[in-house]
Specification:
The protein is mainly α and 165 residues long. It contains nine helices and no strands.
Protein backbone atom coordinates (compact mmCIF):
# COMPACT_ATOMS: atom_id res chain seq x y z
CA UNK A 1 0.00 0.00 0.00
CA UNK A 2 1.48 3.37 -0.98
CA UNK A 3 1.54 6.40 1.28
CA UNK A 4 -1.10 8.36 -0.66
CA UNK A 5 -3.56 5.50 -0.47
CA UNK A 6 -2.97 5.13 3.27
CA UNK A 7 -3.45 8.86 3.91
CA UNK A 8 -6.65 8.97 1.85
CA UNK A 9 -8.09 5.93 3.64
CA UNK A 10 -7.07 7.23 7.06
CA UNK A 11 -8.61 10.62 6.34
CA UNK A 12 -11.79 8.99 5.03
CA UNK A 13 -12.02 6.95 8.24
CA UNK A 14 -11.50 10.10 10.33
CA UNK A 15 -14.26 11.95 8.47
CA UNK A 16 -16.66 9.00 8.77
CA UNK A 17 -15.94 8.67 12.49
CA UNK A 18 -16.33 12.39 13.14
CA UNK A 19 -19.64 12.49 11.24
CA UNK A 20 -21.08 10.04 13.80
CA UNK A 21 -20.44 12.71 16.45
CA UNK A 22 -22.49 15.38 14.65
CA UNK A 23 -25.91 14.40 16.03
CA UNK A 24 -24.83 13.95 19.67
CA UNK A 25 -22.80 17.18 19.65
CA UNK A 26 -25.72 19.16 18.19
CA UNK A 27 -28.01 17.53 20.77
CA UNK A 28 -25.71 18.57 23.62
CA UNK A 29 -25.51 22.14 22.28
CA UNK A 30 -29.30 22.33 21.93
CA UNK A 31 -30.00 20.83 25.35
CA UNK A 32 -27.48 22.95 27.24
CA UNK A 33 -28.14 26.29 25.56
CA UNK A 34 -31.88 25.65 25.25
CA UNK A 35 -32.02 25.14 29.00
CA UNK A 36 -29.90 28.27 29.57
CA UNK A 37 -32.24 30.30 27.34
CA UNK A 38 -35.25 28.93 29.20
CA UNK A 39 -33.78 29.82 32.61
CA UNK A 40 -32.71 33.27 31.44
CA UNK A 41 -36.14 34.00 29.97
CA UNK A 42 -37.90 32.65 33.05
CA UNK A 43 -35.73 34.89 35.23
CA UNK A 44 -36.65 37.92 33.15
CA UNK A 45 -40.36 37.10 33.27
CA UNK A 46 -40.33 36.45 37.03
CA UNK A 47 -38.84 39.90 37.74
CA UNK A 48 -40.23 41.96 34.88
CA UNK A 49 -39.98 45.23 36.83
CA UNK A 50 -36.21 44.92 37.25
CA UNK A 51 -35.71 44.00 33.60
CA UNK A 52 -38.00 46.82 32.48
CA UNK A 53 -35.95 49.28 34.53
CA UNK A 54 -32.69 47.91 33.08
CA UNK A 55 -34.08 48.20 29.53
CA UNK A 56 -35.23 51.76 30.26
CA UNK A 57 -31.71 52.64 31.47
CA UNK A 58 -30.37 51.27 28.15
CA UNK A 59 -32.90 53.43 26.27
CA UNK A 60 -34.57 50.38 24.73
CA UNK A 61 -37.86 51.49 23.17
CA UNK A 62 -41.02 50.30 24.96
CA UNK A 63 -39.01 48.80 27.82
CA UNK A 64 -41.87 46.89 29.49
CA UNK A 65 -43.07 45.37 26.22
CA UNK A 66 -39.47 44.65 25.15
CA UNK A 67 -38.67 42.95 28.45
CA UNK A 68 -41.76 40.73 28.20
CA UNK A 69 -41.02 39.96 24.54
CA UNK A 70 -37.37 39.09 25.24
CA UNK A 71 -38.27 36.92 28.25
CA UNK A 72 -40.97 35.08 26.31
CA UNK A 73 -38.74 34.61 23.26
CA UNK A 74 -35.97 33.19 25.44
CA UNK A 75 -38.35 30.84 27.33
CA UNK A 76 -40.18 29.55 24.26
CA UNK A 77 -37.02 29.52 22.16
CA UNK A 78 -35.18 27.55 24.82
CA UNK A 79 -37.92 24.94 24.99
CA UNK A 80 -38.02 24.63 21.21
CA UNK A 81 -34.24 24.20 21.09
CA UNK A 82 -34.43 21.49 23.75
CA UNK A 83 -37.05 19.64 21.73
CA UNK A 84 -35.34 20.26 18.43
CA UNK A 85 -38.59 21.66 17.05
CA UNK A 86 -38.53 24.60 14.62
CA UNK A 87 -34.87 24.92 15.62
CA UNK A 88 -33.63 26.90 12.66
CA UNK A 89 -36.72 29.09 12.70
CA UNK A 90 -36.44 29.98 16.40
CA UNK A 91 -32.71 30.60 15.96
CA UNK A 92 -33.50 33.68 13.86
CA UNK A 93 -35.24 35.74 16.58
CA UNK A 94 -32.75 34.48 19.16
CA UNK A 95 -29.83 35.61 16.99
CA UNK A 96 -31.52 39.00 16.51
CA UNK A 97 -32.17 39.29 20.24
CA UNK A 98 -28.51 38.52 21.02
CA UNK A 99 -27.23 41.00 18.45
CA UNK A 100 -29.41 43.66 20.09
CA UNK A 101 -28.04 42.58 23.49
CA UNK A 102 -24.50 43.11 22.21
CA UNK A 103 -25.37 46.55 20.81
CA UNK A 104 -27.23 47.76 23.91
CA UNK A 105 -25.99 45.96 27.02
CA UNK A 106 -22.49 44.89 25.90
CA UNK A 107 -21.57 47.61 23.41
CA UNK A 108 -18.12 47.98 24.95
CA UNK A 109 -17.40 44.29 24.30
CA UNK A 110 -18.80 44.60 20.78
CA UNK A 111 -16.59 47.59 20.01
CA UNK A 112 -13.55 45.65 21.20
CA UNK A 113 -14.16 42.75 18.79
CA UNK A 114 -10.82 43.37 17.05
CA UNK A 115 -8.86 45.31 19.67
CA UNK A 116 -9.58 43.07 22.70
CA UNK A 117 -11.02 39.80 21.45
CA UNK A 118 -10.95 38.27 24.94
CA UNK A 119 -13.43 40.91 26.09
CA UNK A 120 -15.71 40.18 23.12
CA UNK A 121 -15.60 36.40 23.57
CA UNK A 122 -16.14 36.71 27.34
CA UNK A 123 -19.28 38.83 26.94
CA UNK A 124 -22.44 37.08 28.11
CA UNK A 125 -24.25 37.11 24.74
CA UNK A 126 -21.35 35.57 22.80
CA UNK A 127 -21.77 31.88 23.65
CA UNK A 128 -25.56 32.14 23.38
CA UNK A 129 -25.12 33.72 19.95
CA UNK A 130 -22.54 31.14 18.90
CA UNK A 131 -24.85 28.25 19.87
CA UNK A 132 -27.74 29.80 17.93
CA UNK A 133 -25.60 30.32 14.85
CA UNK A 134 -24.44 26.69 15.02
CA UNK A 135 -28.03 25.43 15.19
CA UNK A 136 -29.10 27.80 12.42
CA UNK A 137 -26.28 26.74 10.09
CA UNK A 138 -26.06 23.01 10.85
CA UNK A 139 -29.63 22.33 11.93
CA UNK A 140 -30.70 20.53 15.09
CA UNK A 141 -29.15 17.18 14.14
CA UNK A 142 -30.63 13.72 13.75
CA UNK A 143 -31.74 13.53 17.38
CA UNK A 144 -34.57 16.06 17.09
CA UNK A 145 -38.23 16.39 16.27
CA UNK A 146 -37.27 18.49 13.23
CA UNK A 147 -35.29 15.56 11.87
CA UNK A 148 -38.19 13.13 12.39
CA UNK A 149 -40.62 15.52 10.68
CA UNK A 150 -38.17 16.09 7.83
CA UNK A 151 -37.59 12.36 7.45
CA UNK A 152 -41.34 11.78 7.18
CA UNK A 153 -41.72 14.39 4.44
CA UNK A 154 -38.50 13.56 2.58
CA UNK A 155 -39.43 9.90 2.20
CA UNK A 156 -37.07 7.03 1.39
CA UNK A 157 -36.19 8.20 -2.16
CA UNK A 158 -34.25 11.30 -1.14
CA UNK A 159 -31.09 10.99 0.91
CA UNK A 160 -31.08 11.90 4.56
CA UNK A 161 -28.41 14.00 6.14
CA UNK A 162 -28.36 15.32 9.66
CA UNK A 163 -27.72 18.89 8.53
CA UNK A 164 -30.92 19.01 6.47
CA UNK A 165 -33.13 18.70 9.52
Amino acid sequence: MNTNSFVVRAYSLLVRGASYLQAPVLLIIRLYWGWEFFLTGKGKLSDLGKVTSFFADLHVPFPKFSAALVGTTECVGGLLLILGLASRLISIPLIFLLCVAFVTADSEALHSIFSDTDKFFAATPFLFLFACVLVFVFGPGAISIDYLIGKKFRGPASGTTTSNA
